[in-house]
Amino acid sequence: MAPKRRAKSSTKAGGKKVKEEPEAPPKDKFTSAKEALKATVPQVKGARNPDSFCHLSNAEIHEDYDCMLNQTNIGNNNNKFYVIQVLVSGGKYYCWTRWGRVGESGQNNLAGPSTVDAAIKNFEKKFKDKTKNNWSDRENFVSHSGKYTLIEVDGDQDAEVKVDTVDGGDVKVKTEQHVLPCTLDEATQRLIRFIFNNDMFKEAMTSMNLDIKKMPLGKLSKQQIAKGFEALEQIEAAIKKGERNKLEELTSKFFTIIPHNFGRNRPPIISDDSVLQGKKEMLLVLADIEIAQSLKAESEKAKEEMKDTVPHPFDQNYQSLKCKLSLMDKKSKEFKIIEKYLNATGRKGLTLVDVWEVDRDTEAERFRENDALANRKLLWHGTNVAVVAAILKSGLRIMPHSGGRVGRGVYFASENIKSAGYVCPSNNIGIMFLNEVALGKEYTITQDDSSLRKAPAGYDSVVARGSQEPGFSTYNQKSFLISLFTNVLCELRTFKVACCGRAIGRYVRMCGGVVRGRQQFVKMNRQW
């Protein structure tokens, strides 16, 4: 048995040795996202509208008497919501309630007209009956078994921002403002419209069974998403400890916090690591969608503060990414080489639409810390189209147990067909990143090891070697793109050595600053 590694020690004044704490591993994206969400200062809640199923004419919400409740109980096959509102119309007051199974319109009741005090009393009684909490103390809300939980939203749960349209782009402007022409080329305009498109975000959320009525775009509070992260951590702890008797209750809690639409089917119990990781990925996508919505909100706020002229909405959203996107000429040698790389290693039916070179603010400086690492390759990374804006804004981040083979890290593949499996497209358009990755000294594994948190001492990256991969030429810093791709083989090399039992390998970097912002940003079309 190999001896255990000891922590390094140092010598204090006086000759006494003290034990140094081991270096903490970098935080994965799940942990970082949860902490960032919890640290967010609660926003002042936006204006709320009456429930869309209430047809009381000219009604408005009275003060802040409005709530969305949710309850999931897997054992009883419950997955239900409850809406309570105090409405005022024509000087008369009402208490509106609507309830039912998530995904359905349910039943409703309009109590009134009455005095304002009577309507508020009715509201507060229903809230107490359904949650076992007092409305006046909702800031300290405590969830109780068998009761509903308060869902925190910032603004109208059915809100869709009504905007004017300028050159096919949504933009909210004052009547006296003049919208400037867009400065972006047509391909980049289409890209910006695509990665900030609300219908695309909704499609992504619906595909994950998320209920977009209870979690509207840009309205679900970041604190609510953070609670979802914490609920998954409790489920993960129970799975690791083998406490299967707790999983039904904990899963019910998670689906109560993050409403899902399962129709009439019984909500499934999150009972193993693969399902858990899927829900982690889902929450990360949801958090990244909220980032994109926040960028749009910042753009809208900036425009409102302008007087005479405002930038085109595409320019405004582009600037919010804080990175430079340079469209590659389709006749250029670089584009042809990337197309060759795609065709050589990708699945049939893929069409390369456009390629952008990405230069993210400050990332080149971080990448220079790894200038000494000579082993660099351009590797593929597939992703969900809903998170592209967040990646362009913040870069790729370490994922928890990504892919499950090599532990947590930033995962890449030398063959497009592998990374394409992680692409979640919209309208048959998918997006991938072709990254300059500083691999340094590679540590090759021949069997899966999901427990890895960093490369072993003396190594910079981990490679789960497959039985084949494309050939790579030597890295040349002066002409990186051309030199790396000049000798990409149209046929794949086959290795007659021990491998991970799969044809295609994975490359994993487990620390930051190793993926250069000067990556190639690839837009593809196919029948996914």
UniProtKB/TrEMBL annotation:
A cellular-component GO term for this protein: nucleolus
Chemical reaction(s) catalysed: NAD(+) + (ADP-D-ribosyl)n-acceptor = nicotinamide + (ADP-D-ribosyl)n+1-acceptor + H(+)
Keyword Repressor: no
Annotated Basic and acidic residues bias: 17-33
Keyword NAD: yes
Subcellular location: Nucleus
A single BP term in Gene Ontology: protein poly-ADP-ribosylation
Membrane-crossing residue ranges in chain numbering: none
PARP catalytic domain: residues covered: 312-505
Pfam families in UniProt: PARP, PARP_reg, WGR
Alphabetized InterPro entries for the sequence: ARTD/PARP, Poly(ADP-ribose)pol_cat_dom, Poly(ADP-ribose)pol_reg_dom, Poly(ADP-ribose)pol_reg_dom_sf, WGR_dom_sf, WGR_domain
Top EC class of this enzyme: transferase
All residue ranges annotated as the PARP alpha-helical domain in the record: 181-297
Alphabetical UniProt keywords: ADP-ribosylation, DNA damage, DNA repair, DNA-binding, Glycosyltransferase, Metal-binding, NAD, Nucleotidyltransferase, Nucleus, Repeat, Transferase, Zinc, Zinc-finger
Region feature (Disordered): 1-33
Molecular function GO labels: DNA binding; NAD+ poly-ADP-ribosyltransferase activity; NAD+-protein mono-ADP-ribosyltransferase activity; nucleotidyltransferase activity; zinc ion binding
WGR domain span: 58-148
EC number: 2.4.2.-
UniProt record similarity statement: Belongs to the ARTD/PARP family.
Record's protein name: Poly [ADP-ribose] polymerase
Organism phylogeny: Eukaryota, Metazoa, Chordata, Craniata, Vertebrata
